[in-house]
Amino acid sequence: MDTPLRSVQRAMQLLEALGRAPQPMPLHALSEELGLGKATVRRFLLTLQGLGYVDRDARGAYRLTERIWALCRAGNRADEVRSALRDLSREASVAASLSRLDGTDVVYLYREPPGVVAGVPLAAGARLPAHATAIGKVLLAHLSAEQLRALYPSGRLDACTERTITEQTILLGALQEIRRQGWALSDGELEEGLCAAAVPVYGTDGSLLCALNASASGGSRAREAFATDIVPALLRYAKRFSDLLGSAQG
Q1: CA of 190: how far to CAs of 44, 63, 100, 196, in Å?
Q2: Alpha carbon distance 118, 161 (integer Å)
């Protein structure tokens, strides 16, 4: 009778641990969670890193890459998700996207239509600084103050434009307001003339799945229009994506 391979089981347990973690995990934390020696965990990490499923950040902590998320999404209603994004884009005359948080960046899962923002081609795997984007701020708002301070230990944040929030204390105050109202805005904080709004997308169990974003550039939409017109549309579509992504995960 065939027997399960222990190495495969451990590799999957390692990926699951990284998938559950809200932030990249250092080697010692993974070793403790899995009950395995550091040398053993390091070998698994090196193998998974070589395959492109795990990445190591500047602080030496490990995280899942977009490749593993793309693998999880394959066949899990990806066409329906893109169709819903296109519907939102046409209805509201915006670019629409879904992203998740990875450290201090937002990582794009889907975007309709494709485009370039702040010199970055936005497609699956693209990264932008979370603190300068509406979608990033709505995701950061789900972290505790302690987690935020750990993400930005210097207390300073890089400026993308003159409107970018560059002080940790100011960001904490903005995130508190975002948590209260349930949505976020960004007006020229990432790129001059770019306005965006974002809302969280929750699973059926109330857990945060990702965030939904709508953006328009060139001064075609004022900040007030995003708050009054676009946010209600985002909230409606967030329920649609919750149903799609929740069933895809189930």
Answers
A1: 37, 25, 17, 10
A2: 10
Nearest-10 crossing angle of helices 231-249, 78-92: 180
Instruction: Summarize pLDDT for 74-110 with one digit per residue, the tens.
Output: 455 778 888 999 999 999 989 999 998 888 899 888 8
Whole-angstrom distance, CA of residue 198 vs CA of residue 211: 7
Q: For 69-249, CATH number?
A: 3.30.450.40
Return d(Cα 3, Cα 118) in angstroms, integer: 52
Domain ranges for the chain, please list them: 6-64, 69-249
6-64: in CATH 2.40.50.140: no
Looking up tokens 């329906």, which residue turns up? 80
Tokens of 55: 């990445």
CA–CA dist 186, 60 (Å, integer): 31
**Measured distance CA(129)–CA(104) in Å, rounded:** 6
Over the stretch 101-160, which tens digit does the pLDDT of each residue have?
Answer: 888 899 888 888 877 677 777 777 788 999 999 999 999 999 988 888 888 888 788 999
CA angle 238, 240, 242 (to 5 degrees): 70
> Could you tell me if 134 and 198 are in contact, meaning their C-beta atoms sit under 8 angstroms apart?
yes
pLDDT in tens, 41-54: 999 898 888 878 88
